[in-house]
Write a structure and sequence with these properties.
It is built from 4 helices and 9 strands. By secondary structure, the chain is an alpha+beta fold.
Amino acid sequence: MTDLNALKYTAEHEWVAIDGDVATIGITDYAAEQLGDVVYVDLPADNATITAGQVMGEIESTKSVSELYAPVDGEVIALNGDVDADPSLVNQDPFGTGWLVRVRLSGQPITGLMDRAAYVELTGGAA
């Protein structure tokens, strides 16, 4: 079980788990619920450079298509192939097997991310 209080969050509903110089990124349970059944995920290419606040991909559900925003600066070092094969993992386990990408952080300070309490407040207590 992922410790949700150890994660950082964005206003665009991505979460980040930081371990040393590697960040694992996914979308929150709130986002997954709002999207409905996820049917396709378009992730950045392996080795792509992502920039915090910029679009890094898309997520498509039966209800809509939403952009995925990079919460940190860095280089993509892993893509979750399981999500590529079975996008419903994002709905089933958004904080676990439904993670999206891993990024080697660029060394820039990480700013603009919220703790769990701030994210829960942002979503009206629904997170």
